[in-house]
Specification:
Radius of gyration: 18 Å
Number of helices: 6
Oligomer: single chain
Distance between the termini: 7 Å
């Protein structure tokens, strides 16, 4: 039973349960970065690691590392960076990001979706903390 004698009938979504649309958007942005189809400098300026989840965050970090070092950002260079960082297990996910199902001209829309998803994850975390603090199931 929760605060005030009430019980909650809905539980917050687990933090690791992502919508397919959010995952797809993360893959689209990474695909644009990895496939060298656009000037990625303005895109990189709008992104941060916390916009990505699971292994896609590590892939983004590898992209950022290469970009900041002035190296090309593509499957070969990012794959090598992941291997050097002992994160080679993300190579399969990286390959799925480069399926070509994205529009490089819509990168701003994709980034806006990532920002919304990050905000939603933050609100879900706050909700979960409050429910835990008030002993609401």
């Amino acid at each position: 039973m929760g605060a005030g004698g009430r019980t909650s009938k809905t539980k917050p979504k687990p933090m690791n349960q992502l919508t397919q649309a959010s995952i797809t958007t993360e893959r689209r942005v990474l695909g644009i970065l990895l496939c060298e189809v656009a000037n990625i400098a303005p895109i990189m300026g709008e992104l941060s690691k916390d916009m990505f989840t699971q292994g896609r965050a590590e892939i983004f970090e590898a992209c950022k590392h290469n970009h900041d070092a002035g190296n090309p950002v593509n499957i070969a260079t990012v794959g090598k960076t992941l291997v050097d960082r002992k994160q080679g297990s993300h190579a399969f996910e990286m390959a799925s990001c480069t399926d070509g199902i994205y529009n490089a001209h819509k990168w701003k829309v994709y980034v806006a979706h990532l920002q919304e998803a990050r905000q939603e994850r933050g609100l879900e975390a706050i909700k979960a903390d409050l429910m835990r603090d008030f002993d609401i199931e």
